[in-house]
## 1
Amino acid sequence: MANLNIKTFRRTAAFTLIEILVTVVILAIAALIAVPMMGSAADIQVRSAAHRLAADLEYAKNMAITYQRPFAVVFDTSAGNTNGYQIPNESHPVSGQDFDVRFAKERNLSRVKITRLTLEPGTSPTTVTFDYMGTPKIGEDSLNKGQITLTADGFSLVVNIEPLTGYVTIDTIE
């Protein structure tokens, strides 16, 4: 038999140009959908601070009802490291530390500031006190309007305290 000089071709495994293009298009569509869903760090910090403030206001209200004595939340809207709030003469139920929240001192809330505090009636009160029934008061008067605006890098949320009930909600600013 004669020795035939036939070349054998091996097929190597590879992706075709069409397969690569389809994959890139799918990834681009997924990225376009996912990117708007992700918020900025400032948005996340403001949302976190608003939820924490709302929970702490509810805590003060519940403690006033439970122990049948007034519990106050004192706000500090000054610039710098003191911007925040506290519940005087109380310890935080989880950490055991003084109940004093200073946004600038906490890494995960460092951009947040209380930019507007509206507690009515009164000229410029900074303290809301919950009585033994959980009713928010400004001094001796019942709260008519309670709004705390939290802002970071242009994004703001408002924490509302309802008169009479002390119910706390969070709203966006439009």
## 2
Amino acid sequence: MTHTSRFLSTVALVAPLLVAVPASAQSGLDPVDLRGRRVIIVAPDADDPRIELTRAALGFWNRTLSEVGVDIRLREASLVVASPGVRAIETFARFVAQRGGRIPKGSSGPQPPPELKEVGGDVVVLLSRQPLLPFAWPLVGSPDYFVVIRAPEPRRTGDLRVLRNIIAHELGHTLGLTHHRASFTLMCGPCSAIAAADDTLEWLPLTDIDLERLQTLHAPR
């Protein structure tokens, strides 16, 4: 299933060798854990504020997964900065975002460029330069999910807090969660930008259905 963000703000979202920065230990996962899903963050520059927002979202999900008693984790495998190949990846992101859920998924849908495949990992998170609709798009092979996060809107008050929840929302789709109609929860569709920007909330909440689905999908082997 294709998953696109439906926060009610203006949800504008954003080559030869990859320039990779060693991953931090933000996810708190032992690198030899075979149930760790490798997350590659692709950023336009090293001081992009969305990098830390993405790491915070990874931490949120790993704490949540631990609390519900499953052993899968999201591990930051590498940070790719200013890759020459990002132009082709951005073009693919724009193609998918403009068509939303109106194109086939998987092997019958539009195929990612070689530059995206070369990034590797299980989940690639593109911190886009573009005002695109955020989404989590399923692929065939490696990576198996392409997550795109829109560019920040500096003039919109609280936008980084909104983005923080958007990133967590899209990562939730890579774990198998789907949309529901509770607009003041993390996996909402549509969502409340007012709630997402609320600085009294650490994160928009998950529902009991979300937590039960995580336990069902990722029960310990």
## 3
Amino acid sequence: MIRTVSIVPAILTDNKQDYRMQVERINVFTRRVQIDVTDGVLTPTVTLDITNVWWPKNWDADLHLMAAKPSEYLDTILKLSPSLCILHAEASEDLTPIFASLKEAGIKTGVALLPATFPGAVKSYIDMVDHVLVFAGQLGTQGSAADLMQMEKIPLIRNMKPEVEIGWDGGANMTNVRALAHADLDVINVGSAISKAENPAAAFQELVAEIDKNGVVI
């Protein structure tokens, strides 16, 4: 059975002006967006600081925090009040109390798994959260190739927690989005295939149309 899959644009930038431009362009065609924030420790790059992050009130914002110590960002996250906050299983601290604080504030929780992280090794986190993000690109950048071998994690996660929302992040584009949509995912986050497109709205619609096609997917 093919699940309903959502294409979710992702914003990753280190520039306030570019951030505003991306928000304004995306706001024309969708309401669910992933905001990527990096710390330069867990990641090789540093994005716009989380204190400069914002989004329209009508958005369902997924905040993807790529940080070694997410507890240092907790107060700001609570003030921003995203719909979903995704933290990395590879963080250098226990995520359990952070997830508890987010849930208490009514914020959905997610855990992201880098390519080397086996789902079974972080089952305790998966049991706690609303969303599991399978990361298959290069952390802290857009435009990297997708490691499609990461799709093997999807049934493992689904078997652990059938009702959890499963997302994909990394290298999704028109060449692979239909295969991803047929892999039992719920969300496909898309970065450069939308943000770098001449017409982001048209690129988004093309991706949506592609995942709705039937027939051979690979």
